[in-house]
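Run log, item B.
One chain of 153 residues. Sequence copied directly from the ordering sheet:
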Amino acid sequence: SMKYLLNKEPLSTENLRESLKKELEFYFSRENLSKDLYLMSQMDSDQFVPIWTIASMEGIKVLTTDMDLILDVLRSSPMVQVDEKGEKVRPNHKRCIIILREVPETTPVEEVESLFKNENCPKVISVEFAHNNNWYITFQSDTDAQQVNTFKL
């Protein structure tokens, strides 16, 4: 059955997929994640969110309630990674980010950056304060980020 938007125009399947993809990718964008406390709170330690959590977001519900379609669109997006069972999803770009926890917001950025100024350490692209004393340190690649994860800072 066609899902109708508020203006009662039926969306063609192609348009629906496109709108859904935009909306889903928006939720998992770095920009949104840095301030979407609800979504962040739904993440497990590997940054996965249950797909039904995403499906129940307002912006998605107005487009579709078809879980298979949502899953299909998520699987086709390079921005996110769906687990093997198709039950949860996480942002893909986060793999090149490591999260420093328990670092107070009042800490100067330079001080956080200096932790990574080490000749064995991959180049840091950006350092940003997230919230709840979490900092996001972004690297060029997931390999870099994983290398840093093995460091003892």
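Observations after the first pass:
- The CA atoms of residues 56 and 65 lie 8 Å apart.
- The domain at 97-151 is CATH 3.30.70 (Alpha-Beta Plaits).
Flagged for discussion on Thursday.
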